[in-house]
Amino acid sequence: MTDLAHPAASPVPEIGRLTVHEIWTCLKAGLHDFRTAPQFGLLFSSLYVLGGFLMTWLGAGHVTWVLATSLGFPLAAPFAAVGLYEVSRRLEADQPLEWRAVLGVVWAERTRQVPWIGAIIVIYFLFWTFLAHLIFALFMGVSTLTHVTTSWEVFLTPPGLAMMTVELIVGGVLAFGLFSLTVVSLPLVLEREIDFVSAMLLSIRTVARNPGVMLLWAAVIAGLTFVALLPWFLGLIVVLPVLGHATWHIYRRALYDPL
């Protein structure tokens, strides 16, 4: 008899081959899910937008609160993603969509594997923050740290341009590393009983098996997110839920159960 408090571990799925065409297919599926149940996507994305406004409003004079809200973003992100994945999962399984059911799944994840993934994301975020400040100091020196917000022309100097180039390269590599760790691990731990370490390792192997397609998918996410950030974060209200739903469909195509 299975212990309900400790359900049996799920079998590890196999990794499939993805094609470039499936990115477009999954984006259309993500848009369809958002249009079918927009209320859930609007809730989760609105929290991001409000958080962005909060961080901007607090400003540099409130370092403690900026740090707290900054850490809250990567820590809360997996739970928001789980909500979007659960909506897509229910639409796929033709199950009823109710606030209590969807939010109940998000709440239940606090005792499962998602918080561990959130903790890894926070550690990753802290490491990148430290590294970004170190790169800035190496190229620009500590004297400009107090004037950077009012002296944008400093970035047009040779050291400034070199600094931004290195920041973009290092940031891009680290961002793709985090993407590789989480692109299928988050929906995987939602749907199956599998530990977060195994899920993240499987996510890395999925990216390694489909490097070109996954790199393109990461670029699509980065590009759409950047464009969505321009109008005062407001574009995220639509872009984030569409990408969240689309990621669920990428996951469903990337992993499958062996016969």
Distance between the termini: 25 Å
Percent in helix: over 70%
In DSSP terms, counting alpha (H) and pi (I) runs of 4 or more, how many helices? 10
The amount of beta strand, in percent, is under 5%
What is the string of SSEs from the N terminus onward?
A: EHHHHHHHHHHE
Cα-atom Rg, whole angstroms?
A: 20 Å
Query: Order of strands in the sheet with the most strands?
Result: 1-2
Shape: globular
- What's the total number of strands? 2
Compute the average pLDDT.
Answer: 83
* Main pleated sheet: 2 strands, antiparallel
Helix/strand structural class: mainly alpha
Unreliable residue runs: 60-65
How does this model look, in words?
- The protein has 259 residues and is mainly alpha-helical.
- Helix content is 73%, strand content 2%.
- It contains ten helices and two strands; from the N terminus they run βααααααααααβ.
- The protein has helices spanning 20-36, 38-58, 63-92, 99-108, 114-140, 158-182, 185-191, 196-209, 211-229, 236-254, and strands at 14-15, 255-256.
- It has a two-stranded antiparallel sheet with strand order 1-2.
- The longest helix is centred in the N-terminal third of the chain and has 30 residues, at 63-92.
- The model is unreliable at 60-65 (pLDDT under 50).
Key traits:
259 residues; mainly alpha; two-stranded antiparallel ribbon; 2 strands; globular
